[in-house]
Amino acid sequence: MTHAIIVEQTGGPVVLRWQRATVGKPGPGQALIRHTAIGLNFIDVYYRTGLYPTPLPFTPGMEGAGIVEAVGEGVIDLAPGDRVGYGQSPLGAYAETRLIPADKLIKLPEWIGDDMAAAMLLQGLTAQYLLRQTFHVKQGDTILIHAAAGGVGSLACQWANALGAIVIGTVGSAEKAALATANGCHHVILYREEDMVARVREITGGQGVDVVYDGVGKDTFDRSLDCLRRRGLMVSYGNASGAVPPFDIGLLNRKGGLFLTRPSVQHYAGTRAELLSMADDLFAVVKTGKVKVQVNQRFALHAAADAHRALEARATTGATVLIP
């Protein structure tokens, strides 16, 4: 017998219930893993609230690290005792043990600790596709990253700085501004106190940025478009403030022939070869020290509701992990 967080109805953090659970033996192509750390991400909130519908009941979570305890038929590149992590999987990470498709697991190098692995894979793979695939950031590009002190933001700002970009970040407090600066932002905008669009235009000499990375959604979408240069790219990759409402596509033309995309990690890591290539790129930049993974909050897994409250209150910085 094991334990897991079970959601029987969608709603606020209170629906995250710690319960006994039964986990069977791995079937063909599956692995049974015992978690040592689990990543907390805003997508977990989307599923908990019902913004992203999924059949009930379910166990949240898409990111974790642990030890392989058993593998099913046909699994040839993993064995019991292997240290593994994952950053894009079927729901089910908020559990002491779980079954998972083995092709979603990544063997962890010795130098990556369990907390770091659980904190870096979903957010790090997200930063990888944003910066290296959705828009290939290069020396001299000027980019805007919202929530620059958050999980994805803190990694993306460091990585973009290392690539030679001019990095503008938005944050909600002076404390987070200091973190964003430490993460490599050349300019930090306190969005509650400053006119974000005016500041971006000032920083860029009136031109606007090449790309906006917006994981906030509804609250920043319109202003993000106004921060772009002519033919700039808007990357809307999350909905922390709620879903972006429908809009007239002609708006993109009126604001300068803009481009808009709404990607997610599964569209880039859809095959095992793609997943492993992205992970190798992420591991390489972290190993150089150019990107540091900051695990700033830890909660017991059974207290996942408290972790969600802190995340939604914007009371977290960097990464947060749940410990079974």
From TrEMBL:
Example GO molecular function: quinone reductase (NADPH) activity
Pfam families the UniProt entry points to: ADH_N, ADH_zinc_N
Gene Ontology CC annotations of this record: cytosol
Superkingdom, taxonomy of origin: Bacteria
InterPro entries: ADH-like_C, ADH-like_N, ER, GroES-like_sf, NAD(P)-bd_dom_sf, QOR-like
NCBIfam families linked to this entry: PRK10754.1
Protein name (Swiss-Prot/TrEMBL): Quinone oxidoreductase
Natural source organism: Niveispirillum cyanobacteriorum
